[in-house]
Amino acid sequence: MKTIRKFATPLTMGAFLLSAVTGILMFFHLDTGLNKTAHEWLSWAMVAGVGLHLSVNYRAFLGYAKRPLAVGIVGAFAVVLAASFAPVAGPQSPVGAIMAGLGRAPVEQVIALTGMDTAAGLARLHDAGIEARPGQTVAALAQGDRGRQAAILQAILAE
């Protein structure tokens, strides 16, 4: 426990600093370079740090469960978390709808959007390491991986 205690709090503090700064930059659309990637992936360090911090300070954390203010604050965040999963009505970015539509389209139709013939488009995909054949949808090629779907579309649509 002593070894864990030595680095649990500094890990939590460092990860919080990274997460807070990159999150604020993203909020104001000022993120550059690897800010978003660092925020998404290195937030796991915060999860680990908090988990370790909790493991060595569990008695103190359990004490908070007896304080109405602490329970209320944590409960309020739990409600906000639950509400964040609710679908949002109203105008939204069309990007999701466009990506879904392109995903449902056969690869040769997406290639046709570029003005290329199907053979040239399939060759471009092959050069990018993606084996496709006419009739396959982009979503089938991506196998449910949104990042892969974006890479497939990038390979097709890139100039």
Structure, explained:
It is a single chain. This protein has 159 residues and is an all-alpha fold. It has 9 helices and no strands. The protein has helices at residues 2-27, 35-56, 58-64, 68-83, 95-104, 107-112, 118-127, 138-142, 146-157. Helix 1 packs antiparallel against helix 2. The longest helix has 26 residues, at 2-27. It starts with a helix and ends with a helix.
Task: Output the keywords.
single chain; 159 residues; mainly alpha; 9 helices; 72% helix
Structure in a nutshell:
The chain is an all-alpha fold and 159 residues long. The chain has helices spanning 2-27, 35-56, 58-64, 68-83, 95-104, 107-112, 118-127, 138-142, 146-157.
Helix content: over 70%
SSE string: HHHHHHHHH
Stretches with pLDDT under 50, minimum 5 residues: none
Number of helices: 9
Report the C-alpha radius of gyration, rounded: 23 Å
How much of the sequence is in beta strands? Answer: under 5%
Q: End-to-end distance, in Å?
A: 56 Å
Determine the structural class based on helices, strands and strand pairing. Answer: mainly alpha
Counted beta strands: 0
Shape: elongated
Mean pLDDT: 90
Main sheet characteristics: none
Q: How do the strands and helices of this protein lay out in sequence?
A:
Layout: H1 2-27, H2 35-56, H3 58-64, H4 68-83, H5 95-104, H6 107-112, H7 118-127, H8 138-142, H9 146-157
Helix pairs in contact: 1-2
